Amino acid sequence: MGKVLVLLSGLMMLQTAMAADGTISFSGAIVEPSCTTATQLQGTSVTCTREGVDKVRTIALNQSQQALPYQLGTVRVKSVNNLKFIEVTYK
């Protein structure tokens, strides 16, 4: 009788773990700031901070894709009508 009761309670818990609508919710917090960009006369740089330590990488405007500091993602430089756009993509 004890084995049947354990099996039935296991099946009941399995049903409650299934999501009927396919929605999965996460809770938490973003604990690190996003990377920042700065454009000066000397060029453009990207600064990323992890655990209180800043890493700065100079962005070459003539290259199309470059890595962010800490390997957090990529930076892509796009040109449209003599304007340069910096697109940051995080992993």
UniProtKB/TrEMBL annotation:
Keyword Signal found: yes
Protein name as catalogued: Type 1 fimbrial protein
Key word Signal present: yes
Organism domain of life: Bacteria
Record key words, sorted: Signal
First and last residue of the signal peptide: 1-19
Source organism per UniProt: Pantoea leporis
